[in-house]
């Protein structure tokens, strides 16, 4: 049997791979998608929030068939200390729109649905197959892949690496270096089941479609660079915490212990009361930001999604950037094909430019300095949240002392925590500059 | 062959009279493997609130016992030539199971699916599968029908024998190995695990074999198998296509079995008695266990004492 030749091979069936494969399949390209999971999505893990816009640009009517849990009507942001939390809520009835903006989802179900759309777009999908390496011609151009099955290689004009955060195929093929521990977070998550009405009552929701998201900073990460989250699904709650791998390695705190502490925090425990834990998962999240982005294109290959470090850690956005990069890659390859141009590194400038021009690179550039800032300023995760909670507590407690003394005490506490006022001012300035 | 046996009570291959004339020798074997798509029981969850089984989101798999049948069928095909067709009855989503079988190396796949099949018990299932097998045999006579030992969701082990009975095939159940196959004589010699030992049985073809678990190692399909599986058109038959004339024999109407109640068994009232072993010699532990056993069953003590005295 002569070796098969495809227009494109997509490595991976996560959001970026599916977006790329779907886009190309719809345009009539002959696409092979290869995933190592038992079924598409079986290896994929996320919190998970689905940002509608990115998917809408690929499948406009996705709301009609996609398995969505709740649309988000309220976002809480908590600064956590050992026994308290201080935070803000934003709840708005404008989120109850005809086409809501954000949804909670369960990835195992969502990915199955997405994969079905991909196959219906004419893409050939094979699962339980791991791409082991890229096949190159004498000129060094990637012309196909080898897998862990007999009977390879299989050839294509271009290989789309949608292989996820580790980028193992790219690494093995010498296209990129190993991911650095300070550029990647390890997140652990549990799914706790509760009756739908209980979720609704506990989170003050009007019906089974409304949902709440809580993002948490402070003692939840035990001094490491990281955050916690709690999302409401229809009949369950997803709760998790993630910190930089480098920090886990240094602090030697087991991730599950961190999550256990979070679950037992007095602000969290009542929300989970009576729930049955049904799932425990862990996953790596690329959080190195703009400066950690590897080379994204080469002769006959390009990178999309987590493999390209396309995660905005500050805004907890990843799958939307993955889908957007996948779509842009697909559109670029369709354009090259239409012009009869090969997928050389030069021609793939089309994809690089599209990315630069999109929210993906724009946002990563905006927060370029954040990863470095957080790594060097752990007081943002420890001192300030603790101080904020202590201050609020002192401020609200009525104990016979006069208010001016209390305010003075709070300000003294702030000064003491950071040594002097200059340091406090510097911290503010640093955050403001990195955010800008 | 007899020296290979574990049990001298079964010294030689027992010939079973073939119910039909031997099939004429053809090029290669025509083998059909009946499979079933089942929920992955390792991942089934009981809804914490309603206490019902949550099938939604539970991945489906090919009944694990059927995979031993499929592998054995493919081995025969590899050795003697021919084709392996996988056949299943189920909802449209059972296509996934068939494609998986193709990816493992099966040659053809047939799905029989019809609303009228819903609610089938083993009688109705074996009827529907037999109809499809008969239809398939019109294209080319079938040499061997394989099934798994049983399914993991129904656990009846009735469908295989049911098909054999309906088709008038010799049934070789609980087969642990296929020793030989004579294409000229159209005979097959297999090992059948039975209570107390292993039977070596020889049968004329065609026959039906239900394969025991852990009897072979499932292969990994090649990349070409996977590509073929992803793209090959499936044969999908309705009840009419499968040549079923009497719909009263199908689905719920053709199923005399009624599930009256599903319940979790009560825990046994009797609790295990613990025998302390700390600081005791093996002989003392043995004595302590005997004391407990004899206290529970004085008759056992009497019997044992009588034997020892004798």
Structure summarized in a few sentences:
Chain B: This is Protein FixA. Chain B: It comes from Rhodovulum kholense. The complex is a heterodimer of chains A (436) and B (310). Chain A is an alpha/beta fold and 436 residues long.
Please tag this protein with its features.
heterodimer; A: 436 residues; alpha/beta; FAD/NAD(P)-binding domain; eight-stranded mixed beta sheet; 17 strands; 35% helix; 25% strand; globular; B: 310 residues; Rossmann fold; 2 domains; ten-stranded mixed beta sheet; two-stranded antiparallel ribbon; 7 helices; 29% helix
Describe this entry's structure for a reader.
Chain A: One of its GO terms (molecular function) is oxidoreductase activity. The complex is a heterodimer of chains A (436) and B (310). Chain A has 436 residues and is an alpha/beta fold. Helices cover 35% and strands 25% of the residues of chain A. Chain A contains 15 helices and 17 strands. The radius of gyration of chain A is 23 Å and the shape is globular. Chain B is of the alpha/beta class and 310 residues long. Chain B has seven helices and 14 strands. Chain B has helices spanning 64-80, 95-104, 122-139, 159-167, 223-231, 282-296, 298-309; strands at 14-16, 29-34, 37-39, 45-46, 53-54, 60-62, 82-89, 108-112, 144-148, 170-182, 187-194, 197-204, 207-211, 235-237.
Q: What radius of gyration of chain A results from the CA coordinates? A: 23 Å
Query: What's the number of helices of chain A?
Result: 15
Helix content of chain A: 25-40%
CATH fold title of the largest domain in chain B = Rossmann fold
The computed structural class of chain A is alpha/beta
Which regions of chain B contain 5 or more consecutive residues with pLDDT less than 50?
1-12
Q: Enter the CATH topology name of the domain at 5-69 and 105-177 and 294-357 in chain A.
A: FAD/NAD(P)-binding domain
The CATH superfamily of the largest domain in chain B turns out to be: HUPs
| CATH level-4 homologous superfamily of the domain at 5-69 and 105-177 and 294-357 in chain A | FAD/NAD(P)-binding domain
Strand content bin of chain A: 15-25%
Strand order of the largest sheet of chain B: 1-12-11-10-13-9-2-7-8-14
Alpha carbon gap, first and last residue of chain B: 41 Å
């Amino acid at each position: 049997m002569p070796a098969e030749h495809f227009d494109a091979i997509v490595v991976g069936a996560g959001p970026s791979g599916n977006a790329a494969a779907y886009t190309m399949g719809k345009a009539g390209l002959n696409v092979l998608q290869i995933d190592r999971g038992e079924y598409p999505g079986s290896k994929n893990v996320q919190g998970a929030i689905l940002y509608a816009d990115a998917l809408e640009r690929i499948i406009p009517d996705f709301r009609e068939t996609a398995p969505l849990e709740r649309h988000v009507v309220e976002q809480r942001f908590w600064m956590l200390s050992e026994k308290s939390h201080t935070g803000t809520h934003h709840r708005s009835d404008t989120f109850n729109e005809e086409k809501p903006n954000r949804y909670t989802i369960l990835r195992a179900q969502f990915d199955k649905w997405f994969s079905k759309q991909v196959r219906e777009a004419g893409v050939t999908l094979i699962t339980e197959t791991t791409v082991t390496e890229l096949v190159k011609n004498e000129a060094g151009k990637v012309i196909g892949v080898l897998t862990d099955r007999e009977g390879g290689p299989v050839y294509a004009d271009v290989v789309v690496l949608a292989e996820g955060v580790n980028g193992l195929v790219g690494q093995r093929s010498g296209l990129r270096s190993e991911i650095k521990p300070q550029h990647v977070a390890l997140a652990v998550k549990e799914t706790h089941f509760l009756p739908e009405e209980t979720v609704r009552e506990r989170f003050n929701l009007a019906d089974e479609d409304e949902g709440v998201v809580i993002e948490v900073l402070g003692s939840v990460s035990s001094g490491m660079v990281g955050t916690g989250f709690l999302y409401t699904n229809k009949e369950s709650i997803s709760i998790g915490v993630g910190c930089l791998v480098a920090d886990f390695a240094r602090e030697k705190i087991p991730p599950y212990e961190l999550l256990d502490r979070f679950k037992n925090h007095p602000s969290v425990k009542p929300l989970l009361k009576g729930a049955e834990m049904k799932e425990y998962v862990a996953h790596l999240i690329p959080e190195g930001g703009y400066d950690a982005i590897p080379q994204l294109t080469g002769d006959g290959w390009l990178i999309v999604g987590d493999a390209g470090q396309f995660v905005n850690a500050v805004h907890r956005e990843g799958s939307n950037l993955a889908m957007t990069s996948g779509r842009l890659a697909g559109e670029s390859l369709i354009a090259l094909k239409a012009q009869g141009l090969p997928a050389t590194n030069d021609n793939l400038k089309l994809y690089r430019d599209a990315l630069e021009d999109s929210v993906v690179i724009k946002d990563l550039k905006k927060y370029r300095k954040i990863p470095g800032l957080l790594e060097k300023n752990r007081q943002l995760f420890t001192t300030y949240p603790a101080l904020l909670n202590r201050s609020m507590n002192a401020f609200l407690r009525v104990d016979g002392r006069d208010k001016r003394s209390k305010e003075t005490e709070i300000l003294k506490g702030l000064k003491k925590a950071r040594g002097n006022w200059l340091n406090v001012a510097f911290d503010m300035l640093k955050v403001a500059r990195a955010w800008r | 062959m007899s020296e290979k046996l574990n049990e001298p009570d079964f010294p030689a291959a027992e010939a079973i009279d073939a119910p039909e004339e031997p099939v004429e020798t053809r090029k290669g074997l025509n083998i059909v493997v009946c499979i079933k798509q089942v929920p992955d029981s390792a991942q089934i969850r009981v809804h914490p609130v309603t206490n019902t089984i949550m099938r939604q989101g539970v991945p489906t798999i090919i009944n694990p016992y059927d995979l031993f049948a499929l592998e054995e069928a493919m081995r025969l095909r590899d050795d003697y030539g021919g084709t392996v067709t996988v056949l299943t009855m189920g909802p449209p989503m059972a296509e996934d199971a068939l494609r998986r079988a193709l990816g493992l190396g099966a040659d053809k796949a047939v799905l029989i699916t019809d609303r009228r099949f819903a609610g089938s018990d083993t009688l109705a299932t074996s009827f529907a599968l037999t109809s499809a097998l008969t239809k398939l045999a019109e294209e080319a006579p079938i040499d061997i029908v394989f099934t798994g030992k049983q399914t993991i969701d129904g656990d009846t082990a009735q469908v295989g024998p049911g098909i054999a009975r309906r088709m008038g095939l010799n049934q070789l159940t609980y087969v642990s190995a296929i020793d030989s196959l004579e294409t000229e004589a159209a005979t097959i010699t297999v090992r059948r695990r039975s209570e107390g030992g292993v039977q070596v049985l020889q049968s004329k073809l065609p026959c039906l074999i239900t394969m025991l678990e852990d009897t072979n190692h499932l292969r990994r399909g090649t990349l070409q198998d996977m590509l073929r599986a992803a793209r090959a058109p499936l044969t999908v038959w309705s009840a009419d296509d499968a040549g079923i004339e009497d719909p009263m024999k199908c689905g719920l109407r053709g199923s005399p079995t009624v599930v009256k109640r599903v319940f979790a068994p009560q825990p046994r009232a009797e609790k295990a008695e613990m025998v302390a072993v700390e600081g005791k010699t093996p002989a003392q532990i043995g004595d302590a266990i005997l004391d407990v056993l004899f206290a529970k069953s004085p008759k056992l003590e009497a019997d044992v004492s009588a034997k020892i005295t004798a």
